[in-house]
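Project outcomes to date are best conveyed with an example. Our students and postdoctoral researchers have been running inverse folding experiments weekly, and each run begins with a structure described purely in tokens. The record below, which covers 485 residues, was selected by the lab manager from last quarter's runs and is presented without edits.
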């Protein structure tokens, strides 16, 4: 069975988050653990061999810390969790100075407007003044930015800057609750401005309708207390992380994908950064970099609300927070897990001997090997219209779909064989050199990578890339469905 070790106990168990243990009951698990990790023994047990009061043992959802449960048989499929009663970081100091707090005053209207916070002992007048004096940048006005921006505005954050270069489109409305059908074709920052104005006109709101680059990011975040990363791509995430670390600005990281979300706090109290966790972005071909993946509608609300809550706690200086931790939320099976992120002494950005000392525009396409190399033979592509004509004419063509299963579930390409990029070289004999092979992905980038991969593996059949991918082709597919499927 799997035994999960809570973050604060992990150092005593070889830093393992979980261990596979073969045992029939809790007694046997504890015997095994204390044999394997003798140091853990004095943490778990006192001198009389009793489980210490602050350690809890859960089997599934049930607390089984009491010795009377320890001989009960446990199913091999159960999850066992070792949890200290007091988990989490040290109390936080506010990221807003006392001087700035003292400079803030409230009029009668504000006292009424902020009364829900003023009546809380842990926030009160001092906390609310810190909130009003706070200056926060939110990057991304999409699914995550939507709740973040609205909660910051409602809570009374005095200065909010929203950065996004995108326009609202119909497909955004389902999970980006900042925007309505009337906002379609408007810049996302424009609907953000409207919403914030409707909440509280006295908020200093700045919209920045541009894409962040190494050239402009310092200007965008300079003078702000906190940055909240609500973007959806690696390029922005690493740029924001690097700039925040180099400029010494705390960062809240929020991400969603399908049914899972992550939120964490970086660069606070000399804590870790994104690169401590992932020194480099994922390897090429391993992730659907140009796929949007989709997410269930309320997930942005769940994760974004937690991010906004973390932001307010950092501003006020209360509670435990996700500094050095990542909260992973599985909304499908309702698992909430907090994973520890240790500061990495070898981190290329915030470690002892950093190799990254300036922000750079990190070109993900280039990094992924997707960009055309000048020395390389160019990749031939086929336009969607042309492909439709050839299919109608029943020309013999082999289609290879290199997308992820979840993408194929949304839109199947008729009569395509499915080969993940990682298996292409090994499975090249499945292709018929006597006919043209056309490679398909969502936007035409991974399919180009597929062709390059096969060339490198020595395949010399004629290969074409579907230009623009299925995003360009789907209108034609839907209109031909009857004939093609
Ligand atoms: Zn780091």
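After processing, the design step wrote out the following sequence:
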């Amino acid at each position: 069975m799997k035994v999960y070790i809570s973050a604060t106990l992990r150092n005593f168990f070889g830093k393992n988050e979980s261990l596979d243990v073969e045992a029939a009951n809790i007694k046997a698990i504890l015997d095994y653990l204390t044999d394997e990790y003798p140091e853990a023994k004095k943490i778990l047990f006192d001198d009389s061999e009793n489980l210490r009061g602050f350690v809890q043992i859960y089997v599934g959802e049930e607390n089984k810390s009491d010795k009377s449960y320890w001989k009960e048989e446990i199913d091999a499929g159960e999850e066992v969790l070792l949890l200290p009663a007091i988990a989490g970081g040290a109390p936080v100091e506010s990221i807003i100075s006392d001087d700035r707090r003292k400079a803030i005053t409230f009029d009668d209207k504000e006292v009424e407007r902020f009364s829900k916070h003023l009546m809380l002992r842990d926030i009160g007048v001092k906390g609310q003044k810190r909130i009003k004096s706070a200056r926060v940048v939110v990057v991304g006005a999409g699914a995550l930015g939507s709740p973040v921006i609205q909660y910051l505005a409602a809570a009374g954050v005095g200065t909010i800057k929203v950065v996004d270069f995108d326009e609202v489109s119909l497909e955004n409305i389902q999970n980006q609750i900042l925007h309505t059908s009337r906002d379609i074709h408007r810049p996302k920052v424009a609907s953000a401005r409207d919403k914030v104005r409707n909440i509280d006109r006295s908020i200093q709101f700045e919209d920045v309708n541009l894409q962040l680059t190494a050239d402009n990011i310092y200007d965008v975040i300079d003078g702000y207390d906190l940055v909240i990363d609500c973007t959806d791509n690696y390029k922005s995430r690493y740029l924001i992380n690097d700039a925040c670390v180099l400029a010494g600005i705390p960062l809240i990281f929020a991400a969603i994908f399908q049914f899972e979300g992550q939120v964490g706090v970086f660069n606070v109290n000399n804590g870790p950064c994104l690169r401590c966790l992932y020194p480099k972005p994922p390897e090429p071909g391993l992730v659907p970099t140009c796929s949007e993946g989709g997410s269930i509608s309320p997930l942005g609300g769940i994760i974004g609300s937690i991010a906004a809550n973390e932001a307010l706690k950092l501003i006020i200086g209360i509670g435990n927070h996700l500094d050095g931790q990542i909260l992973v939320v599985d909304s499908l099976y309702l698992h909430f897990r907090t994973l520890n992120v240790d500061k990495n002494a070898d981190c290329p950005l915030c470690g002892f001997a950093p190799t990254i000392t300036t922000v750079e525009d990190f070109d993900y396409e280039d990094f992924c090997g997707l960009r055309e190399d000048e020395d390389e033979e160019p990749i031939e592509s086929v336009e969607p219209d042309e492909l439709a004509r050839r299919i109608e004419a029943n020309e013999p063509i082999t289609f290879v779909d290199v997308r992820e299963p979840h993408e194929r579930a949304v839109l199947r390409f008729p009569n395509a064989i499915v080969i993940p990029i990682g298996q292409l070289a090994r499975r090249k004999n499945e292709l018929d050199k006597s006919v043209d092979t056309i490679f398909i992905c969502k936007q035409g980038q991974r399919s180009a990578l597929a062709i390059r991969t096969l060339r490198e593996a020595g395949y010399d059949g004629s290969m074409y890339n579907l230009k623009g991918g299925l995003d360009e082709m789907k209108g034609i597919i839907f209109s031909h469905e009857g004939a093609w499927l």
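The domain at 2-84 is CATH 3.10.20.30 (Ubiquitin-like (UB roll)). DSSP finds 17 helices and 18 strands in the chain. The training component of this project remains on track.
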